[in-house]
TrEMBL record:
Taxonomic classification: Bacteria, Bacillati, Actinomycetota, Actinomycetes, Kitasatosporales
CDD domains the record matches: PseudoU_synth_EcTruB
UniProt entry tagged with the keyword Protein transport: no
Swiss-Prot/TrEMBL catalytic activity: uridine(55) in tRNA = pseudouridine(55) in tRNA
GO molecular function list: RNA binding; tRNA pseudouridine(55) synthase activity
Keyword tags: Isomerase, tRNA processing
Single Gene Ontology BP annotation: tRNA pseudouridine synthesis
Record's protein name: tRNA pseudouridine synthase B
Domain Pseudouridine synthase II N-terminal: 30-187
Naturally occurring in which organism (per UniProt): Streptomyces zagrosensis
Length: 300
């Protein structure tokens, strides 16, 4: 049932089901919340499941900052086959097989893809090349290159390695892993690159995002649950969980509200800082530059 009037104000942590785009989820939340002012902090491919952070009303102004936070995934990589999309949704382009691939070789390949690396995003992606989406260029049969970009893989941990037979009879190896990474990392590109390094080809067969910044699956809700009871994390709680906190006195709060740049709290961080007044109200997101505050978004 559509809710009338002003929608709730905060974050909704969704456990996205497979087969839904991030835009599909936003459309549903607009209906559940009764407002069009809804957005998401970082997309998930339709095949993927798990944590999708949705902002409602004023909380949409947090999303650009939340999108830059660290993310965690549970992934299954299939070695022995390559696809056009680097995941299971794309057409198979090569079936080299993975017979004889040792666990030690997999661990060595994973180690090469851990830390600060240069990653070429998957071609079937929303990356823009000269103003045009990469996936559109692929559909039109264009030949093009995507420049590598820096990403950080904090954790790439292999949990299980299994032998399997694919539908076309190819003997493959499935690798279950946990990946913790910076914003902008393509997990399917990690699968592709691991397969390339091992000479087998590789693609992603399952992906579940288990965390975005401080928001994990333990606080996520299914679309069915949210349609029945819309659970919203209040914007103040959301900001306090995601960003360093600065509690100011009444005079500092008044000055910040008037756009005055104050002496910063010297928290030693380049992250946005959440500012709260003496009553615990969330006032603003700021950044600290050269010892002074600069407002990024004002909420009160």
């Amino acid at each position: 049932m559509k809710r009338k009037g002003t929608g709730p104000n905060g974050l909704v942590i969704v456990d996205k089901p497979a087969g839904f785009t991030s835009h599909d989820v936003v459309a549903k939340l607009r209906r559940f919340a009764g407002t069009r002012r809804v957005g998401h902090a970082g997309t998930l491919d339709p095949m993927a499941t798990g944590v999708l952070v949705i902002g409602v009303e004023k909380a949409t102004r947090l999303l650009g900052h939340l999108a830059l936070t660290e993310k965690e995934y549970a992934a299954t990589i299939r070695l022995g086959q390559s696809t056009v999309t680097d995941d299971a949704e794309g057409e198979i382009t090569a079936s080299a097989g993975a017979i004889g691939v040792e666990r030690a070789a997999i661990d060595t390949g994973v180690a090469k893809l851990t830390g600060a690396i240069q990653q070429v995003p998957s071609k079937v992606s929303a990356i823009k090349i000269d103003g045009k989406r990469s996936y559109s260029r692929v559909r039109e049969g264009e030949e093009f290159d995507i420049p590598a970009r820096p990403v950080t893989i904090s954790t790439f941990a292999v949990h299980e390695v299994r032998q399997a037979v694919a539908e076309d009879g190819t003997h493959v190896t499935d690798v279950d892993a946990t990946v913790v990474c910076s914003s902008g990392t393509y997990i399917r590109a990690l699968a592709r690159d691991l397969g390339t390094d091992l000479g087998t080809g590789g693609h992603l067969t399952a992906l579940r995002r288990t965390r975005v910044g401080p928001y994990g699956l333990d606080g996520a809700h299914s679309l069915e649950e949210l349609e029945t009871s819309l659970t919203v994390l209040p914007i103040a709680e959301a900001a306090a969980a995601a960003f360093p906190r600065w509690d100011v006195d009444a005079e500092q709060a008044r000055l910040l509200g008037n756009g005055v740049r104050l002496q910063g709290p010297e928290l030693g961080t380049e992250e946005p800082i959440a500012v709260f007044d003496p009553e615990g109200r969330f006032l603003a997101l700021i950044e600290e530059r050269d010892g002074k505050t600069k407002s990024l978004a004002v909420f009160a």
